Known about the structure:
By secondary structure, this protein is an alpha+beta fold. The protein folds into two domains: 2-200 and 298-386, no CATH class; 204-292, no CATH class. It is built from eight helices and 28 strands. The strands form five sheets. Strands 16, 17, 18, 19, 20, 21, 22 and 23 form an eight-stranded antiparallel sheet that branches. It is globular and about 60 Å long.
Amino acid sequence: xxxxxxxxxxxxxxxxxxxxxxxxxxxxxxxxxxxxxxxxxxxxxxxxxxxxxxxxxxxxxxxxxxxxxxxxxxxxxxxxxxxxxxxxxxxxxxxxxxxxxxxxxxxxxxxxxxxxxxxxxxxxxxxxxxxxxxxxxxxxxxxxxxxxxxxxxxxxxxxxxxxxxxxxxxxxxxxxxxxxxxxxxxxxxxxxxxxxxxxxxxxxxxxxxxxxxxxxxxxxxxxxxxxxxxxxxxxxxxxxxxxxxxxxxxxxxxxxxxxxxxxxxxxxxxxxxxxxxxxxxxxxxxxxxxxxxxxxxxxxxxxxxxxxxxxxxxxxxxxxxxxxxxxxxxxxxxxxxxxxxxxxxxxxxxxxxxxxxxxxxxxxxxxxxxxxxxxxxxxxxxxxxxxx
Length: 388
């Protein structure tokens, strides 16, 4: 696997600017601010440098390149695979608005195996990466639809595109252009490919656990028979004025069964007339919910734990490329300390790995290898790849 990275900013242009691009790259990961991705000349420059590559990327709430976290930039990571094949399937939500059905459609379109162009050998689907619209998709339903139809043993990781703290419009690359209302997946094939992943949070629960007494899919109406939005505002106090953005600082922990690992859900929008809150994933009736708040040190520990889990899953091989998808809520809490969580990942994975990624509106991964794949919020999710 050969990898090169560069970053564009308004102040400095492309850095590094010298040298010949890795033109043989088959895949280019592109992460940037929504307004930056709308600049057609920048996308054209990427296509010129990597003429045969497939572009896989989305808008963000912050870009990760190495151990640097930036805003209003464009991060490009070009990858030349030595032993891995891939296939892309994309869908526009205007054609398939139901999230579960969109997941089913994509999973059915991904071939279970492909023929290696060099050796002629049949290579099985090993892993799927997904980048999704961050505002109109019910991530829980999408993941459920995907996992129902993927071959046994095939794993899924990825995340929901972001738009800073604006929650206005998110973009995902559909072929060569960033488009709204889009979900894109990348199926990876090859016996030489090793994939490790992990997802951890680091938030503390506070206040009483409450029963979800009225909800529909990812919309929450009542907790303990009372207005969910009203109760939430009571807990937030002065922070309630900034909803839904300030809701990123106080997510909900959702637990369906007593022995189940809770998942975290972040608010996407509120409806004052219905006194409801819409979340990135399902809020099932009958489950228990509890508010959470940030713990700085535990957020960094969560990033370290996710890195360790992804590294251990690779076995004896070292990661060559790590895709980091962390929640925008973590970025808003950590502020000037945000690069500490990326540096923590570097400390675990080592200097030889290329780090690329973005801050998201939701993360998709099992907590650990062998666990059920789910949508998460407020986690650091890492997908480590190696062909060694």
